[in-house]
Write a structure and sequence with these properties.
The longest helix is centred in the first third of the chain and has 14 residues. The protein folds into three domains: about 200 residues, Jelly Rolls, CATH 2.60.120; about 220 residues, Jelly Rolls (Sandwich); about 80 residues, Immunoglobulins (Immunoglobulin-like, Sandwich), CATH 2.60.40.10. With about 525 residues, the chain is mainly beta. The N terminus is likely disordered.
């Protein structure tokens, strides 16, 4: 079944480099009377009482429509986001003879992973409530300091050098650095991230943001404040700071007019720029799928080829994205004029350990040295006086192709070069599509997803699109207007048998007001058995 949506919309286009800075909110204890030390602007639990807990909230409390970023010291930390709800444990034969079945606070707990010999430094998340454990399809942990085993690159010197550069970018001295813990509260979900990487998304249901607190145990919160940013209903801005691998542009140097750690708008689209550090952008020429370098016969090699974005695998530029109805991928980028490269990239959307990606190719990206005036571009200026340009690259998406990710609540995206069919050799037991061929010369400075103004769902009237003889086939189209203006839409429904001998077509129109939801139903009676190709445009 194919489901495509084409919704016309108007986008205001203009060139701008306007930094949008996040506000800050002081952290206050909840309840007010708690042991608390504030020294040099840093909040912490007093020494000698590290096993005690400290509940904090932004001044004025958490609120929907905002994203909060806390800076938390990684060493020996354990913290949780308490939802304000309670649950009663279920009695089980595995529990003690006299289990404590009194109500407990519902929370999402974050603990460190720091075994130098066996695993990467990272964060693990566990839900402490049966009401939300059904959403455990999300990744359990996030690598913060992943270094790929050297034996992976045993035969190619160039790859070994790439790996060392990548490893240097990924290493963190976590004993000295703080992690950035993010909490985004939308009308329907709670999203948690560490260092800008999405770690978990949970349904908000009846959770009251004002009742939520950040619970600390043996943790230092730097600066005693939280950054607060308003969430955009139209855009989802991706933080790419954990996957940077390059600094400066060849023949140009480093731009001096980009606000580090802030946001800029180009063509009306916001982008988040990474903080000033060793690297300032992502060079896709380094993208490389290393499965061909693995020795032996790995029955689960699909697991290693489709790694999670939270694994932070070097040379695989992967990002985790919460599921939503997106119609455009915006990339702030430029290409380099380099021999034996291609000035475009491919975005692969997938679920970890499953493959079967949705592949979307970008248009050709102009070179940063291009002289022609482009309306939706950003001028870079170097200390030497040289100028270069970054461009707003629009990659159209069909929301219907992403419905298969809806149950997981998220999907991962990998940016790579052009893709080709991959199969194992000599036994073609597994196959898929991966980056191959000439490297991409595209350099990425920001990534943003645009949400469709009219959210559209397309649901069959029977489980798994299966009907029996004599039944009427039905599909329900759900429309939700997420904008402040009324939107009119025309839908075209079509169904065709596998042999093309039976075809059906219908269309319908609807006018959907701001915030309004509507449903339309399409039905037909098939005249043949077997597979039908169904489309909605």
């Amino acid at each position: 079944m194919t489901f495509r949506t084409r919704v016309a919309g108007l986008l205001l286009l203009h060139a701008a480099c306007l930094p949008v800075m996040a506000a800050t909110a002081h952290l206050v204890p909840r309840p007010v009377r708690q042991d608390l030390v504030r020294e040099n602007g840093v909040l912490s639990i007093p020494a000698g009482t590290r096993n005690k807990t400290l509940d904090l909230a932004p001044e004025g409390g958490f609120a929907a429509g905002r994203e909060y970023t806390f800076r938390i010291r990684y060493a020996d930390c354990r913290f949780a986001f308490v939802t304000g709800r309670a649950y009663t444990p279920v009695k089980s034969a595995f529990l003690a003879s006299n289990p404590d079945l009194s109500p407990r606070p519902e929370m999402v707990v974050f603990t460190p992973l720091a075994d130098r010999d066996k695993t990467a430094y990272g964060m693990r998340v566990v839900e402490d409530s049966p009401r939300i454990t059904s959403w455990r399809d999300n990744s359990d942990s996030l690598a913060l300091n992943y270094v790929m085993p050297p034996q992976t690159f045993a035969t190619i010197d160039n790859v070994a050098r790439w790996q060392e550069k990548e490893a240097g970018a990924l290493r963190h001295d976590l004993a000295r650095e703080d992690i950035r813990f993010g909490v985004a509260i939308t009308a329907t979900h709670l999203r948690f991230s560490v260092n800008g990487v999405l770690l978990r998304q949970l349904p908000r249901e009846d959770i009251d943001p004002a009742a939520c607190v950040l619970r600390l145990q043996g943790v230092t919160v730097a600066a005693g404040t939280a950054e607060v940013a308003e969430l955009s209903p139209r855009f989802l801005v991706i933080d790419i700071s954990e996957r940077l691998n390059a600094s400066g542009l060849p023949g140009f140097g480093t731009a001096t007019n980009l606000p580090a750690g802030g946001e800029v708008e180009v063509g009306g689209v916001p982008f988040r720029l990474p903080p000033r550090q060793k690297f300032d952008h992502l060079d896709l020429a380094m993208s490389w799928m290393d499965a061909a370098m693995r020795g032996g016969y790995d029955e689960t090699e699909v697991w290693t080829r489709w790694r999670a974005a939270t694994d932070k695998v070097p040379l695989r530029y992967q990002f985790r994205v919460p599921f939503d109805h997106y119609d455009t991928l915006y990339v702030l980028a430029a290409s380099g004029d380099v021999k034996d490269t291609v000035p475009r990239f491919t975005a692969q959307f997938y679920l970890p350990k499953r493959g079967r990606p949705v592949n979307v190719a970008s248009p050709d990206v102009p070179a940063f040295q291009a002289k022609a005036e482009v309306a939706d571009s950003l001028i870079l200026r170097a200390a030497t006086g040289k100028e270069a340009r970054l461009y707003l690259v629009r990659v159209p998406l069909e929301p219907g192709r992403f419905t298969k990710f809806s149950r997981a609540g998220y999907f991962d995206m990998e940016l790579t070069k052009e893709v080709q069919t991959y199969r194992t050799y000599p036994d073609p037991l597994t196959h898929s599509i991966h980056g191959a061929g000439l490297p991409s010369s595209v350099r990425v400075f920001g990534i943003t997803f645009g949400r469709a103004p009219l959210r559209t769902t397309f649901d069959p009237g029977a489980l798994a699109n299966l009907w029996t003889e004599g039944e009427e086939v039905s599909y329900t189209v759900g429309l939700e207007n997420t904008t402040d203006a009324r939107r009119r839409v025309r839908l075209a429904f079509a169904a065709r048998s596998y042999d093309g001998m039976d075809a059906y077509a219908d269309d319908a129109g609807a006018s959907v007001g701001p915030g309004e939801k509507k449903e339309l139903k399409f039905t037909f009676k098939p005249k043949r058995f077997g597979h039908y190709h169904v489309t909605l445009v």
